[in-house]
Design goal:
Elements: H1 2-12, H2 27-32, E1 40-45, E2 48-54, H3 59-69
Antiparallel strand pairs: 1-2
Length: 70
């Protein structure tokens, strides 16, 4: 996912913040958001989950999801 997230960052700039969390080192986060598969992508807006999906998602699809949420 790292190259895809870098590509996405190039497409959207500073509109959003992209964070990667190592669920093995942060099991509390994994439990809090019920992450069962890696990668799991979660889009938050004002602290609320707006979208989530497990598995690889292409940058163009992620951009569409973000555009719809903004």
């Amino acid at each position: 996912m790292a190259p895809i997230l870098q590509q996405l960052k190039g497409m959207i700039g500073d509109q959003v913040t992209i964070l990667k969390v190592d669920v093995d080192r942060n099991p509390d986060v994994s439990n809090l958001y019920r992450i069962q598969g890696v990668p799991t992508l979660i889009l938050f807006k004002n602290g609320e989950i707006k979208w989530r999906q497990s598995g690889v998602v292409q940058a163009s699809q992620l951009k569409s999801v973000i555009d719809a949420a903004l």
